[in-house]
Write a structure and sequence with these properties.
The chain is of the alpha/beta class. It has 15 helices and 19 strands. The strands form five sheets. Strands 1, 2, 3, 4, 5, 6 and 17 form a seven-stranded mixed beta sheet that branches. Strands 7-16-8-9-12 form a five-stranded parallel beta sheet. It has a three-stranded antiparallel beta sheet with strand order 13-14-15, with no helix packed on it. α1 runs parallel beside α13 and α13 (442-462) packs parallel to α15 (517-529). The chain is globular, with a radius of gyration of 23 Å. The structure holds ligand NA7.
Length: 540
């Protein structure tokens, strides 16, 4: 977009989603830094720019899923509690109108290299099309889902119909009317695509490896009047969310599952279920994610509720089995609206690919291990991402000695606070590895982490500090902390993208900080109050 090939700036941010836009606005408009953003896509929105597959919708309710900037929320009204991708894109247009964001974003600029010059203490960042930026502070805000995951099936390229990965869906959509459609994968994405395609496709087959323990969305329209009334409490609301584990306006009940009688428990489960969203996950008994028996009680309630909605016993046992038991909430539950009822239609099917894996792709469709050829016109690959670390390992980021991050993170992930790395002075990242990323929602997480990065940069300017760099010891300590926190929970007992276990060959470790926001915020504050404890500080 007419940007010069060579850019000099104080701060260079990569990614113009929630994180990048937050940093740009606060660093530029409140603190007066010169800031530029490189964005690989053609518009603002990050995940909402890339994901326009049918049914793409946020799973965190309004107003927690928006910026806390009053000038933005005062002038914006949502249509419903859980808006879809198109509305989120309009929201970013609104953010741009209010905060004048785009003038400092360079679009169509995929970053391919970043190197630090020890002498000048500047980063040099290069894009695929030859742009070069020199900056003092380099911030990676590319989120946790920047690298797609394609299955390694034989013959993937031979399919003659239409095949897309969910995050690369055509802008103008794919017409599924009268078509035979396959959806592979039942993460949040697969559930949403399947639910939408089921309305119009001639036939739909969902290929499920692990059941998604979906929760009822309880979607609701929001009127302008009710939002207007609620806005009186928004300032308080945005502060309060930081006092909860996952940054939501609700938190775990401070009792164990066994503290209540079966009747009381049933009543609470039912109430959380009716209130909907993530409440049955993140507003339930505090031991649910820690204790197997407590967890089992949750699973059993979930299975009872869901099984009652599926008529066919074979489909019922695949989608919501009584056995094997899947620890509840240790993988990301999706929110659904009529995902289970749709299987009561004869043209909607589910195949258990744990028992009967996909063996290969042929021109007409998919062949499963039992030799069946499933014929399709359209295949949606909802097979997820090399989540959390994949994107950052893939953008040519090198340390002070020219060693790539992909080497440093080959056998595991090391960072300090989930925002900085040893060997990378003045480089920050957010909503990524070893932060509260997966156990929170995007806007909350980027505001908490963004505020720390901004405070750190401001402190460096105020105190004439040239560079800060995390020490190896601090990284080792953080690495251990992230793993230990996870080991207390049931998260590490299950293969999931939280554990890096969705990608063949990826080291198995907890990739997210599971200590909750209050504890995380305390760690961040102590680091700054302690004059960059855990960092080597070089003064000008
Ligand atoms: P996810 O949550 O990683 O889901 C990917 C799905 O694809 C999941 O059901 C996987 O099964 C399945 N999968 C992955 N690879 C294969 C292969 N090779 N064969 C068959 N099935 C496969 O990605 P999403 O895009 O749904 O969601 C990502 C996050 O974005 C989500 O958590 C939200 O936070 C927003 P598995 O469960 O591993 O058995």
């Amino acid at each position: 977009n007419g940007a010069p090939k060579e850019i000099e700036t104080d701060v260079l941010v990569v990614g113009a989603g929630f994180g990048g836009v937050y940093l740009l606005h606060r660093l530029r408009d409140e603190l007066g830094f010169k800031v530029k953003v490189f964005e690989a896509g053609k518009d603002l929105g990050g995940i909402w720019h890339w994901n326009c597959y049918p049914g793409a919708r946020v799973d965190s309710p309004i107003p927690v899923y928006e910026y806390s900037f009053p000038e933005v929320w005062k002038t914006w009204t949502w249509s419903c509690k859980y808006p879809g991708w198109a509305e989120l894109r309009k929201y970013f247009d609104h953010v741009d109108e209010v905060l004048d964001i785009k003038k400092d974003v360079v679009f169509d600029s995929a970053v391919v290299a970043a190197d630090f010059d020890k002498k000048s203490k500047m980063w040099t960042v290069k894009t695929e099309d030859g742009k070069v930026a020199k900056c003092r502070y380099y911030i990676v805000a590319t989120g946790f889902a920047a690298k797609r995951h394609f299955p390694d099936w034989k013959g993937l390229e031979t399919f003659q119909g239409v095949m897309h990965h969910s995050s690369f869906w055509p802008e103008n959509g794919v017409d599924v009317r009268g078509k035979r459609v396959a959806v592979v994968g039942t993460g949040s994405t697969g559930i949403q695509i399947a639910q939408e395609c089921a309305k119009e496709a001639k036939e739909l087959t969902v290929f499920q490896r692990t059941p998604n323990l979906c929760l009822p969305m309880q979607q609701a329209r929001l009127t302008e009047k009710e939002q207007q009334e609620r806005k009186e409490d928004y300032a308080q609301f945005f502060r309060d969310r930081l006092t909860t584990f996952a940054g939501f306006p609700f938190d775990f009940i401070q009792r164990d599952t066994k503290d209540d009688t079966p009747e009381e428990r049933e009543k609470i489960f039912e109430q959380l279920w009716q209130e909907g969203g993530f409440k049955f996950w993140l507003a339930t008994y505090k031991d649910m994610l820690f204790d197997k028996d407590a967890n089992r009680q949750h699973y059993d309630f979930w299975a009872k509720k869901v099984r009652a909605r599926i008529n066919d016993p074979v489909k019922r046992d695949i989608l919501a089995p009584l056995e094997p038991y899947h620890p509840f909430g240790t993988k990301r539950p999706s929110l659904e609206q009529d995902f289970y009822e749709m299987f009561n239609k004869p043209n909607i099917n589910v195949v258990d690919i744990r028992k009967n894996p996909i063996r290969e792709v042929v021109p007409e469709g998919l062949v499963t291990a039992d030799g069946t050829l499933h014929k399709f016109d359209i295949i949606a690959l909802a097979t997820g991402f090399d989540s959390v670390t994949g994107g950052m390992k893939n953008m040519g980021l090198n340390d002070i000695n020219g060693i790539p991050l992909s080497e440093k993170w080959k056998l595991g992930t090391w960072s300090h606070l989930g925002m900085t790395c040893n060997g990378y002075p003045n480089m920050f990242f957010l909503y990524g590895a070893q932060g509260p990323t997966a156990f929170s929602n995007g806007p909350t997480c980027v505001e908490v982490q963004g505020d720390w990065i901004i405070d750190a940069i401001k402190k460096m300017r105020d105190e004439k500090i040239d560079s800060i760099e995390a020490t190896r010891e601090a990284e080792e300590e953080w690495h251990t902390k992230v793993q230990e926190l996870s080991k207390k929970t049931l998260f590490h007992t299950v293969d999931s993208w939280y554990m890096g276990a969705n990608i063949p060959g990826k080291p198995r470790e907890q990739l997210n900080y599971a200590g909750g926001f209050p504890e995380y915020s305390r760690e961040l504050k102590e680091t700054l109050d302690g004059n960059f404890r855990g960092f080597v500080v070089v003064s000008a």
